[in-house]
Design goal:
The protein is mainly alpha-helical and 224 residues long. The chain is 79% helix and 0% strand. The N and C termini lie far apart (65 Å).
């Protein structure tokens, strides 16, 4: 979902509508400056909403979604973005290099999955466990881990809890790697098909065309 591109498109279309309607209301209908401006703002707002609806129709048509599915995916992405911001803030609080690398990798995987689904909303259905469970678990565990690691207490039970949390976070990293592979699985299969087709095309192109009854030796150059 290229929100920035669509927003710029709406402004590119809407601004001339705003200026044109203001001039039309003031010059064509002989309305005063302020009233013309208010009506022009209203016209701009309505046109902006109409363009947004058209853009939404194009998106759902392109990816084979319904409006209900599209709204649900947008809502999930909005919630996921908030959770990603939380996750991004947590991994900066750890002091251990090992923990920093581990949480940085988790953050990288989560952002990658989020960006892929944002670009192609239909892939949301290949990443539902990530949005419904794994991201929440990552935020919760990271929050507790950064809380424990920042405490001055060095008791054995705290150290055991930290060790267990690190092990669980490592397992969660592996789960999120599987989420990413699942999201990319259809792209990988499509790439394999395209590569197979390209290999066949190249092989056919490399083989010389022979006339009926002609052997490969006959196709060699003939001296005159």
């Amino acid at each position: 979902m290229n929100d920035i591109k669509y927003f710029i498109t709406r402004q590119f279309i809407g601004f001339p509508i705003f200026i044109g309607s203001w001039i039309a209301f003031q010059s064509g209908l002989n309305l005063n400056f302020m009233l013309s401006g208010l009506l022009a703002i209203g016209t701009y707002a309505v046109s902006n909403q109409i363009i947004k609806v058209v853009q939404s129709r194009l998106i759902v048509s392109k990816y084979g979604l319904t409006f209900a599915e599209y709204r649900h995916i947008r809502m999930q992405l909005k919630e996921a973005k908030f959770k990603l911001n939380q996750l991004n803030g947590y991994f900066l609080k750890v002091r251990s290099i090992r923990a920093f690398k581990q949480l940085f990798e988790m953050n990288r995987l989560a952002k990658r999955i989020f960006q892929i689904v944002k670009t192609n909303p239909k892939k949301f259905y290949q990443a539902e466990p990530f949005f419904y469970a794994h991201l929440d678990t990552a935020v919760e565990l990271t929050s507790k881990y950064t809380l424990l690691v920042s405490q001055p207490v060095k008791a054995a039970d705290v150290q055991i809890a930290l060790q267990d949390t690190r092990a669980t976070l490592l397992e969660l990293n592996q789960v999120m790697e599987q989420d990413l592979r699942q999201v990319l699985s259809s792209d990988i299969e499509q790439l394999k098909m395209e590569l197979d087709f390209a290999k066949i095309s190249l092989k056919n192109h490399a083989s010389p065309l022979l006339l009926k009854g002609e052997s490969p030796d006959d196709s060699k150059s003939i001296d005159f």
